[in-house]
Write a structure and sequence with these properties.
Strand order of the largest sheet: 1-2
CATH architecture: Orthogonal Bundle
Structural class: mainly alpha
Number of domains: 1
Number of helices: 16
Strand content: 5-15%
Helix content: over 70%
Order of helices and strands: HHHHHHEEHHHHEEEEHHHHHH
Oligomer: single chain
CATH topology: Preprotein translocase SecY subunit
CATH superfamily: SecY subunit domain
Distance between the termini: 12 Å
Shape: globular
CATH class: Mainly Alpha
Number of strands: 6
């Protein structure tokens, strides 16, 4: 009896230890991948003068290039091999999702399951390489025209430098794309989101130091600094509350008899998140705003007049920038929600399994009701995203505080943290359930 109990405890503890070891391996793999990414942001492109680049980027810190640099973890200001970061991949993903909505061929691929998804991912990778090459060439040409007090940012301009820069930057983006996929499969959390998260978090110490330095020199008053810190805490609280908010729709399943036994008769609920699209709309909106301005912002005022005018109008805190930013956030909030949740498909699944919403007829009426509820939730979610992203942007433009305190950055950091912690919690629960199942099986054998 004692030996059987000891064997049961030993098997249970061994299983739990193995599962805990697997989770530890996933966490260490994720941390190792992010460390590799951070090291890569300090490897510079060949043929550039780092001192002149630092001087020129200090002038662009408060502009849209400063936003891009925060997402890139400082890799752009250092002009490292990861200067383009993962943004070309995000832009390619946006294009592919838009194409799926208008192209019957891509829509058919999407419905083919795993094989179709792999094909779409392959097209997304091709698009990433093309966009990265286009942006890299524009960046190389722009750097050749950048002039600091000590001379040109590029030591030896020409086709050789351009070719080297394009190959290096495209290779860096492709490597990050691969690294993000590996983290998603073998680590914890979404790899692409974690890469952006790591870049933003890495800027936190420098941003805090810069803010305190502004306070020490008198450029910012203590009241303003404390106000921004309080604002950051309030924004984080709102983000956590809204991201966890749900609209639960009651679903009833009728009783049915199979042989001599009765099944069903219970009620469940269909959870609809208030912000179904998550952090995707601000990331997509930022990516599209950054794409056309990659070359314009690096023209150094030497480009065509219309290009300089557009660059000025799309500066941080400008009305046109805020209007386009909000419009893109609202568009992608509805667009991405329509992609991840199909009311008609959900209504068909409920009808197939005998479920129904009390007071609503199955089929088309259920789909219309779900679409109505989801539309109202998406309106609230889009307003929430717009307010979170725009109010800090306006305040930063007025008070010139480091970009890190922007709403988009806080939204990404808090949301990715919540998702990653949720996945770790899910792994732990799965391990506990597996241990309990093994324990019950051993007890059954004993009986």
């Amino acid at each position: 009896m004692a030996s059987a109990a000891e064997q049961l405890a030993a098997n249970f503890n061994l299983g739990a230890f193995k599962k805990a070891t697997e989770l530890k391996k996933r966490i260490w793999f994720t941390l190792g991948a992010l460390v590799i990414y951070r090291f890569g942001t300090y490897i510079p492109l060949p043929g550039i003068d780092a001192g002149i680049l630092k001087e020129l980027f200090a002038q662009q810190q408060g502009g849209i290039i400063g936003m891009f640099d925060v997402f890139a973890g400082g890799a752009l200001s250092r002009m490292s091999i990861f200067a383009l970061n993962i943004m070309p991949y995000i832009s390619a993903s946006i294009i592919m999702q838009l194409m799926q909505a208008v192209s019957p061929t891509l829509e058919a691929l999407k419905k083919e399951g795993e094989a179709g998804r792999k094909k779409i991912n392959q097209y997304t990778r091709y698009g990433t390489v093309f966009l990265a090459a286009f942006q890299a060439y524009g960046l190389a040409v722009g750097m050749e025209g950048m002039q600091g007090n000590a001379g040109s940012a590029v030591m030896e301009p020409g086709m050789f430098f351009r070719a080297t820069a394009v190959i290096t930057l495209v290779g860096g983006t492709v490597f990050l794309m691969w690294l993000g996929e590996q983290v998603t499969q073998r680590g914890v959390g979404n790899g692409i989101s974690l890469i952006i998260f790591a870049g933003i978090v890495a800027a936190l110490p420098e941003a805090l130091a810069g803010t305190l330095e502004l306070g020490r020199t008198g450029a910012l008053s203590t009241v303003v600094i404390v106000g921004f810190l309080v604002l950051a805490v309030v924004v984080i609280t709102i983000i956590v509350f809204i991201e966890r908010a749900q609209r639960r729709i009651i679903v009833q399943y009728p009783k049915r008899q199979v042989g001599n036994r009765m099944f069903g008769g219970e009620s469940s609920h269909l959870p609809l998140k208030l912000n179904t699209s998550g952090v995707i709309p601000p990331i997509f909106a930022s990516s599209l705003l950054l794409l056309p301005l990659t070359i314009a912002s690096f023209s150094g005022g030497q480009g065509p007049e219309w290009l300089n005018t557009v660059n000025a109008l799309l500066g941080r805190g400008q009305p046109l920038f805020l209007f386009i930013y909000v419009s893109l956030i609202v568009f992608f909030a509805f667009f991405y929600t329509a992609i991840v949740f199909n009311p008609q498909e959900t209504a068909d699944n409920l009808k197939q399994y005998g479920g129904f919403i009390p007071g609503i007829r199955p089929g088309k009426n259920t789909a219309d009701y779900l679409d109505f509820v989801l539309t109202r939730l998406t309106v609230l979610g889009a307003i929430y995203l717009s307010v979170i992203c725009i109010i800090p942007e306006w305040l930063i433009a007025q008070h010139a505080v480091p970009f890190y305190f922007g709403g988009t950055s806080l939204l990404i950091v808090v949301t990715v943290t919540m998702d990653t912690v949720g996945q770790i919690h899910a792994h732990l629960l799965a391990h506990q359930y597996e241990g309990l199942i093994k324990k019950s099986k051993l007890r059954g054998r004993r009986g």
